[in-house]
Every structure is written in C-alpha cells, then in structure tokens.
Design goal:
single chain; about 400 residues; mainly alpha; two-stranded antiparallel sheet; 15 helices; about 75% helix; Gur-4
Length: about 400
C-alpha cells in the first residue's frame, strides 16, 4: 500500500467528512478497544472484563515499580544503577498513563471537553485544518511501531535465554526467579500501549484546540462591516466565541494539568539517563542496543508531545490580540461605538494564564521548553564528563553506578 493510499484510509478512519469532534475521538477509542482499554462501552460485561484486565495489569505494574524502587535504594550490589532508574521511571510512566486513561474514560472528561470546544464555532477550525490534524494523528499512531520494536526485542532477549548485562539480576528476579520475569514483562508491554493511547488522546485534544483558535484568529482578521451596527455586532459575537473557547481551554487544562506534571517530571530524568546510557555504551552488545534505542526514541517523542504541542497552543493564543489589532477595518475611521466594543474585546483578551499548565506551576510555552532543554543538556554533559573520573589513586568513578 502506498503512502497516499495509507493517508486516504486514515482520513476515512480518523477524520470522516461528516463526523463531528465526538466521532473523531470515538475513532481514536477504537484503538483502545483492540487492546481492551475502552471503558466507554455501554455493555456491562465488556466494561467488567476491561476493568479486571486493566486493574490486574496496574497492580502487577505497581508491584514491579515498587520492587525496582526498593532495589535502587536498599540494594548493596547494583552495578547498573542508571539503567535501573531508567527502567523504574519508564515503567512508572506507563502505569501512570494507564491510570489516567481509565480515569478520563470513566469520568467522560474528554467527551465533556469536546462538547465545550464544539459550541463556539461548531468545529469549523478542525474541518478547515483537517489535513494538519491527520498528519499529527498519523505521527502519533506511527509511534506504536517503536513500542512493537521494544516489545519484540525484550521478548526476543528473554526467550533466547541470553544474559543481557545492561539489566541487573535483581530486576529479572523481582518476582522470584528469571522464569517469573515474564509476568511483569507482559504487564509492562500492555501498559506501554496504554501510555501510547494516553499520549495520542493528549495530542489530539491539544491539537483540535489549537486549530479552533487558529480559525478564530483568522476570522477576527477579516471582521468588517459597512455600518457601525454591523461592526459592533461582529465584535460582540467575537467576544462570545472567545469566552466560550477560553472556557474550553480551561476545561482542557483541568483535565491534563496533573497528567502533564507527572509525565514531564518523569520524562526529564528518564530521558536524561537513557541518553547517558546510550552514549556511554556505544560499544555494547547488539541485544542491549535493540532494547535501549526504541525506548530512547519513544521517550523523545513523549517528551516533545507533552511540551511542544501545548507550547504551540499557547503561542497561538498569544497571537489573538495582535490579529485583532491588525484589522484596520475596526480602528479606522474612528467610531466611538465600534471603538468601545473593540476595547471591551481587548480586555477579554487579557488572559495570560490560558493554556496547558504543569499543575499550575507554569504554562507550557517555548521559553519553558528552551530552559528545560538547556538544563538537561548541561546535566548530560556533566554525567558524561565525570564518567571514568579519577579520584586521587587508580580508583575510577563510573557515573552509571551513581
């Protein structure tokens, strides 16, 4: 199948021409149905089975995370602490994402948000920029390939019986012995699909909001009228639409802020240690590389999805005021009633806290991403610099054991 044919199929599945925003989200939930991560079904038996499967996976995942965490803090002999910390945080992110995915579906949070977002412009922004949304969804779905590569490599190494030195023995024996390691391994792979679906929903919600605001900005650039009354009416309608969009954005922030905080707090150290492991083990065995490289690529995708997409939304929100100022049809010639309506609209635009926040600590914006990346680069440089540093005698310090 060619790339053009694949795009056509995905456009039918994800973005049907006559489908509203709810149908777009329902098509994403089809992915969850394939792996039992769908709690929107009205069938009680299906919801019960899904609950039993997911809660069992979460329980096994939490036990494994606690076991690995205990080994990190209390084990006396662990030669690969950096790897163990990465595995610990990687599994923690998968479990947290699965928990939030269940919570969003059971509470119907995403459906409520989509209803709020659809009201101001009837989803015209998404219909206008549907090709851009399709591209984002294709990129998010393609990340499942990295998960499949990671699953294939981990199961391949496990069933081959090879002793991969990058993973500490205490992790493999966390359920008693090597043979029992298959239990947390299966739970981990299942939770990874939950993680990918959570990121997909996260990106979808932020992207559709971005396109609705972009469409709104485009509309206020073209406000015009032959009379003062028609101009005042259009500005009043713009105020109403912007107020409704602001309500939808705040609702989305309420849904995503805790998830964004926890996932970014986990993504930074896991990505940092994973980069360090890859750079410090360039001459390692092939089995180690096929495990770590897909994990690294997925961590990079997850980090930039959590930060860059909301930053793009925040950037578009800040453009609304300049788009309104650029419309000379409103400001010239001077008309008192139109001017008063325009000033009233400008006062509504003074909402600097609109966007996706990290649990209220800070809005996800470009300066935040730049600062985070610079700090991460500095920390990675320090870790690599002190790798193999001599402390006086012949004793060496390996940062992978710190």
């Amino acid at each position: 199948m060619s790339r053009k044919d694949l795009s056509s199929v995905l456009s039918i599945v994800l973005l049907d021409e006559d489908s509203p925003l709810e149908c777009y989200y329902n098509r994403i939930c089809l992915v969850g149905k394939c792996i039992g991560l769908n709690f929107d079904s009205s069938n009680l038996l299906k919801r019960t089975i899904s609950s039993l499967i997911v809660y069992t996976i979460i329980a096994i995942g939490l036990y494994f995370v606690i076991s690995v965490g205990y080994s990190i803090f209390f084990s006396e002999s662990m030669p690969n602490v950096a790897v163990t910390i990465t595995i610990f945080i990687f599994n923690l992110q998968a479990v947290i994402s699965t928990i939030f995915l269940v919570q969003w579906q059971k509470r119907g949070s995403i459906h409520k948000f989509i209803h709020l977002l659809k009201e101001p412009q009837n989803g015209e922004g998404v219909n206008k920029y549907r090709k851009g949304l399709l591209g984002q969804m294709m990129a998010a779905l393609s990340m499942s390939i990295l998960i499949l590569l990671y699953i294939t490599s981990t199961f391949g190494v496990y069933f081959s019986g090879k002793n991969v030195t990058v993973i500490d023995r205490e992790i493999i024996n966390s359920f008693g012995n090597r043979d029992s390691y298959i239990i947390p391994l299966i739970a981990q792979e299942y939770a990874l699909f939950g993680w990918n679906l959570s990121i997909l929903i996260y990106v979808f919600c932020v992207e559709v909001t971005f396109y609705e605001i972009r469409y709104f900005n485009r509309s206020i650039r073209t406000i015009s009228g032959l009379s003062e009354e028609s101009l005042c009416s259009e500005i009043s309608n713009a105020i109403k639409k912007y107020s409704d969009i602001a309500v939808a954005v705040r609702s989305l922030n309420k849904i995503l802020k805790r998830y964004a905080f926890m996932m970014i707090a986990c993504s930074i150290p896991s990505l940092l240690f994973c980069l360090y492991i890859v750079f410090s083990r360039l001459n390692s065995e092939m089995e180690e590389k096929v495990i770590m490289i897909p994990a690294l690529l997925y961590l990079l995708y997850s980090f930039f999805s959590l930060t860059a997409v909301p930053a793009k939304l925040h950037d578009e929100i800040t453009k609304t005021k300049s788009a309104f100022y650029e419309n000379t049809q409103i400001w010239f010639p001077y008309r008192s009633s139109v001017y008063n309506a325009a000033v009233a609209f400008c006062s509504h635009l003074e909402q600097s806290n609109l966007g996706i926040s990290i649990w209220g600590f800070a809005l996800l914006s470009r300066p935040i991403i730049l600062t985070t990346l610079s700090v991460m680069a500095t920390c990675l440089a320090l870790l690599l610099q002190f790798r193999g540093y001599k402390f006086g005698g012949n004793q060496m310090c390996n940062c992978s054991t710190i």
